[in-house]
Amino acid sequence: MTEENKEDNMMVQMKELLDMSELENLISSNEQIFDVDDVTYRVTKPTYKQRQESYKKKIEKYAEFLKDKSYMLQEDLKKIYLDRGLDTDEILKLIKGKSTRRDSLMVQLGESLAHNAPDTELESIRDEIKFLNEEIQQLSIKHTMLFEVSLEQQVMISTISYLTFLLLEKKDGENWVRAWDKYEDFENAKEKLINRSTYYVTLMSGNNEF
Questions:
Q1: What integer is the mean pLDDT of 176-184?
Q2: Residue 14 or 73, more confident
Q3: In a 3-state reduction of DSSP, which class is residue 169?
Q4: Fewest CB atoms within 10 A around its CB: which of 20, 78, 95, 105?
């Protein structure tokens, strides 16, 4: 798969998963129930014990990857990209600027709705918010892909994956049971299920988890 196709695939997955009308509820929710291939699953917020278990796995993976010279630290990658004329910090600044503009427009949209503004005005604001969201997504994906080979990124992916393995349950009659008995079963699961469940785990657990 080429880098362009890989980026397009990530965009499609994000658009399929991301429903902005439900995002706020998802972040604040204690559980998310969903269906994949006619099986009902749920993800719940991690308990203290599960958080500790995933943190232990994170430390183990960091120590393991640190010994492997093929992994590079993000700071080392930043220097390499800068030498090649690519300032990754500028990408972050663009994301921040566009996010600030989008948030301002969302406030403006709320005020316009409250004052019964004309439909043409509301539609114009909505269109700009949608356009900014797409730009933010594209820039975020670009930044993520630039650092996906870094040690820190690989540790984060491993931690999210392991926490998903711990948290995902499936409906068995009237009961909820662990979706997988062994981590190897998680690794061999269908990509659609892994993508959807890790997405929910990431949002519900918060960035500090990883």
A1: 94
A2: 73
A3: strand
A4: 20
